[in-house]
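tool=predict chain=A
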Amino acid sequence: MSENLNSNNIDNDDFNLINEDIDYKDLINKLNEIKSTIALLEKTIFK
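tool=predict ok
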């Protein structure tokens, strides 16, 4: 019985790591969008 619990914990840890990886990639994408927006605003302001 405890073997099943350990197996479930490992699966949950893997699932959490996958979710964290997705969150990290989403954050990087958002930061890149912000970077692009700032660059565009700088070009507009300093014309």
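The chain has a mean pLDDT of 80. Residues 13 and 19 are 10 Å apart (CA to CA).
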